[in-house]
Design goal:
Helix content: 40-55%
Organism: Planobispora rosea
CATH superfamily of the largest domain: P-loop containing nucleotide triphosphate hydrolases
Radius of gyration: 34 Å
GO molecular function, one term: ATP binding
Largest sheet: 11 strands, mixed
Structural class: alpha/beta
Number of helices: 20
Bound molecules: adenosine-5'-triphosphate
Keywords: ATP-binding, Membrane, Nucleotide-binding, Transmembrane, Transmembrane helix
Protein name: FtsK domain-containing protein
Amino acid sequence: MTKHRLSRSRLRRDARRMRRAGIEPMIIMDDIEFDSIAIVIFFRLIWRYRSELAPLGLALLVEAAAVALHISQPTWWVGISIGAAFLTMTVLIFGRHVGLSRGLERVYAAYLVAMIGGWVATATAIGPGKPPLPSILIIGGFVSALPWWVHRRRRAKVRVERKLAAWPELAEQIGLAGSRIQSAIVDLWGYRFRLALARGQTVEDAITKIGNVESALGARRGGVRIQPVPEQRADRADVRIIETDPHADAITWPGPSITSVTQPMELGLWEDGTPVAVSLLRRHALFGGVAGAGKSGAVNVVMGNLTAAADVIVWGIDLKRGMELQPWASCLDRIATTPQEACTLLRDAVAILDGRAEWLASHGLRVWEPTPDAPALVIIIDEYAELVDDAPEAVTYADSIARRGRAPAVTLLIATQRPSQRAMGHSAVRSQMDVRLACRVRERGDADLILGAGMHKAGWHADKLNAPGKFLLSAPEHDIPRRGRAYLLTDEIVQRTAERHAERRPSLDPISAEARETPLYAPETASEPPSPLPAARGRHARQEAASAAEDALKAALANAPGEGTSIGDLITATSMSRPWIYQRLRQLASDGHAVQVSRGRWRDRREDHSP
Ligand SMILES: Nc1ncnc2c1ncn2[C@@H]1O[C@H](COP(=O)(O)OP(=O)(O)OP(=O)(O)O)[C@@H](O)[C@H]1O
C-alpha cells in the first residue's frame, strides 16, 4: 500500500468535491490511529446525545460529590440537608425567573433538588456505598429521569438543534453557502431562526430559495416563511418553519398581552403561528362578519386586554339585553342595554370628547396621552345595526365620536354583521374606521363593505374564511391579506378574567367627569347635530376663540364685585365650558392674577380688597 501524506486543507477540499458529486467521503489513512477515531466518535456521540444523557451525567456527578464529601467532611450532612430544603423552596417560589415558566416544571425541578439533596446528605453521613443508597440512586434516578426524557418541549428543542447543526452543509447545497444561524426558538407550532446571510446575499435571494429550504429541513410544502427582520438589516432574515397548523383547532387565549392601551394587543395568531398584534390607541375599529363567525369572540379578546390596562376606561352598548357584554359588567365603567341608555351614554361620550378637546386646545396640545389618571375611553357597541334601528338619534353622537374622537382618545369599537349604508344609519361612521377585522362573510361584496371598496379584488377574500374566529385584518400596520385566527375565551375564562381585572379599573379623570356633568352642548339640543368645536375649525380660528374667551374671562373677573362672581356667570360671559373655566382660573390664581373669594366665587386680584 502506498503511503500518501495529505495536507488537511487538501483533504477538506477533496471531501467537499466528493460530497458535491453525491459521494459521502470516507478517508482512511494509515497514519491515523483507529483507537483515536473511536474516541472521537465516542465523544461526538456523547455530545450529540448530551440532552438524553444528562440524567446519567447528573447521577455520576452526585455519586462523585457524595464520595468526596463522605471521605473529607462527613459531618456536613446537616448543612447539606438545610441547604437542599432552602433551595427546594427557592426553586418553587422563584423558579419562574430562571425559565421554569410552568408550575409543573417548577414542581419537577424542586422534586429533583429535594431528592438529590436528601441523597447526598445521607450519603455524606453514612457513605454512598451503604445499602440501600446505591439502589436508590439507580432506580430513583431512572424513575426521576422519565419525565425529562418524555418532556415534549425538550425533545422538540433537541430535534431542532440537531437539524440546525447541519445548516452550514445544507446551506451550501441549496445555494445559501456561508449563511449562519444566529439564534433559534422552538415553540408550539414549529421553530424559527434568524439567519445571518453571507456577504452579497439578500433576503430576496433567501425567499427565492424557500422551496429548497423546505426540502433541506424536511418541512412540509408551504411550511416555511422567510421575512426581512424588523430592524431592516439587509443581511439578516427570519426563517419560520411551521410544523403544526396553528389554525387547525381553537386557540386558547394565553392571557392579556398589554398593560397599557398604548401598546399593541394580541388578538390571535397568523397562519405561521406568530401573534396578530394591533394597536387600538386613538383608532376606531369595525368588526364584521356573518352570525356565528366569531365577532363577539374577537370582542372578548379585546375586552380581556383592555381591562388589563390601567389607562383605559371601557363603556359598553349591548342592545341584545347585555347578552354579550354583561359577563364583563364588573370591568365596564358603564353599560347600556336599552336604546335610551345607549343614547345617553353616547351623548355623555360626546360631552367628554368636547371637554377634552377644549382642554387640549387651551393647553396647546394636540392629543390626549392616556395615563391611569387621565384614561382613554373606548366605547364598544355590539351589533351596531340594532342601535341604528332602535335609537336612531344615537347615530348622530356616534358619528361625532367617529369624526372627532381620535385626538381626545375617545374611540369606538363597533361589531356588526353587515355594515351596509342602512345598517350604519347612512352616517360617515364606517368611513372613519381605522382598524377593520373581517370574519367570514356570505358574499364577496360584504368583504368590501367591512374592509373597504375594492378590497376583495385585491385579495381580501373574507368569504373564503372557513372556521369561526378566522379573520382578515386591515389596519395601518397590516396592509396585506393574511389569515388570522382569534384566541378563544371560554365563558369560564371570561368570568375569571373579569373578576381578576375588576379591582384595577381606573375612573374618569376630573376634566372628563366635569365635562360629562356640564356638557358644552345642552342635553335639550343634543338630538341636533353638535355644532363644530373650535378644535374642528382649524388652528387659527381656535386660537382666536381661545383668546377672545380669555379676554372675556379677565374682563368678567375685573368687573366682579368684592364678593366675587360665580362660575355660572363666568360661563355665560365666556361661552366656555366649566372645565375650561376651572382650568383657566387655576392658572390665573397661580400667576397671581385671580383669587377665589369664597366657594365658587372668583374675582381678579386687587390691592385694596386682597384677602
Ligand atoms: N376564535 C375562535 N376560535 C374557535 N371558535 C370560535 C372562535 N370564536 C367563536 N368561536 C365559536 O363560534 C361561535 C360563535 O361565535 P360568536 O358568538 O363570537 O359569533 P358572532 O359572529 O359574534 O355571532 P353573532 O353575530 O350571532 O353574535 C362561538 O360559540 C364559538 O363556539
